[in-house]
Write a structure and sequence with these properties.
Elements: H1 2-16, H2 22-40, E1 52-56, E2 62-66
Antiparallel strand pairs: 1-2
């Protein structure tokens, strides 16, 4: 799913001709949700894999989460 995220992001940047801006992040989120819903609605099980990243919460507890924007 990290790759899907990157492909959509690059498409938005290519189409607008500039780096991502605030409204572009909303478009990225909508397209990701739409894509995941299409996979969810398939008549079969789908397994997603993603690159990982470390993230700390407000209590300084470190978690490993999918690498998405």
């Amino acid at each position: 799913i990290t790759e899907i995220n990157d492909i959509i992001k690059m498409d938005i940047e290519r189409r607008t001709g500039k780096p991502m801006e605030l409204q572009d992040w909303g478009e990225l989120q909508k397209k990701l949700k739409s894509t995941f819903r299409m996979f969810r609605d398939l008549p079969m099980h789908v397994i997603f894999i993603a690159q990982e990243q470390n993230e700390k919460d407000e209590d300084k507890i470190e978690k490993i989460v999918p690498s998405l924007n």
